[in-house]
Amino acid sequence: KQEVTQIPAALSVPEGENLVLNCSFTDSAIYNLQWFRQDPGKGLTSLLLIQSSQREQTSGRLNASLDKSSGRSTLYIAASQPGDSATYLCAVRPGAQKLVFGQGTRLTINP
Amino acid sequence: KAGVTQTPRYLIKTRGQQVTLSCSPISGHRSVSWYQQTPGQGLQFLFEYFSETQRNKGNFPGRFSGRQFSNSRSEMNVSTLELGDSALYLCASSWMLGEASYNEQFFGPGTRLTVL
Predict the structure, then answer these.
(1) Residue B99 — very low, low, confident or very high, per pLDDT cuts 50/70/90?
(2) Residue A42: its chain B contacts at CB < 8 A?
C-alpha cells in the first residue's frame, strides 16, 4: 500500500528565505507526482507535475525534484513571500486515476 | 477556460439525511475524481469516473455513490449521513489520453458538508 509522508508538518520562516519541503513515498512504482498548494478552506491549486521519467520541473520560483528510486521528492521555493503562506501537499499517482496524498506541510512566511 | 466548479459550496445536514453534490469539470476533461478531506484522515480518494463509468473506487462504505453524465458532469451522493461524514468534498478533473493518464488533476473549490 502506497504511503506518502511530508516533513516537516509545519514550517515558519522569514520573508526572502529559500526553503525546501520534503515528500517521501513507500512504493517507487508511480506514474507521476504532483505538488499542490491549499489555502485555508479552499480547494487545491496544482503547482507542478513531474512524470515518473522526469527528474525535475520548474515554474517561476518553484522547483520540484523527483528521485523515484529513493522514493523522495522536494519542492524548493526561492525568495519566499508572505503570499506563499499555505499548506503544500504532495501526491503520487500509483496507477489508474487515484492520487495518494501526504498530510501536507503548513508553511508560514513572516514579513 | 473556466476551472472545475462545484455546487453547492456549503451544506448543513442532519444525521440520517442524504445529500447530493455536483461537479462540473474543465471543458474537454472526461475524467472526474472525488476526494474527501478531513483534519484527521487528510485527503482520501472516493471514486473516479470516465465516460459515465466508475473505473476506480476507494475504501468507503456503500453509502457513498456517484455517477457521471454524458456531458462529463458528475454527482456524488451520500445517504444516511453520519457525523463523521462532515468534511470538505473535492472534485478533480483531468484530460485523458487513452486508458492511461499522465496528466495533471485540477481541483475545484470543494463543498463543505457539515452534519449535525
Answers:
(1) low
(2) 109-110
